[in-house]
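Table S2 (text version). Query chain:
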Amino acid sequence: MVRRKGTLLGVISDVFAENTSSFDSPLGVEKVEKVDSDVIRIQFRDDVDCDLFCREAIKEGYRVEQGIFAPRIICKGSIIARVGSRSDPEKRRSVFIYLIPFDRREMSTYREVVAVRHGVIDPRTGRVNFEKCLQYNLKVIRLLERYRKTRYESLSKRLEFH
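Corresponding structure-token output:
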């Protein structure tokens, strides 16, 4: 099978749907893996620049919580992404994102609550609004892609000019 150069969106989408990807990881990304039905771990080449990651999250309209723990990105009271901690594989080189599965049977109880909170599940009918699910997931992935491009693609372009 011939692998193609992928975008972070393409790689995450493949891994989220099929647990594997037909794309090569984009610049700066070493590995993308599905940890659980709603959790994707993105392993970067270097430690995550927490200041840059948090700045990008704030630009996207998210709230950031950090302290003695690794930064967590919050939307409507729910963690949508977090930087890896000492106990995680690859520690600070990883970012975990929390997506909403399209199949309600794959959602944990907590993820169902998040889906209702974000309008993905209608609390009266229990139906999943696939458009809102897609919008939610794309917005989370966009945060990672903005971070990746700023950290790695902007850096490589700056280095080309020197």
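Notes on Table S2: The beta strands are 4-5, 23-24, 29-36, 39-44, 63-65, 72-75, 78-83, 94-98. The mean pLDDT is 89.
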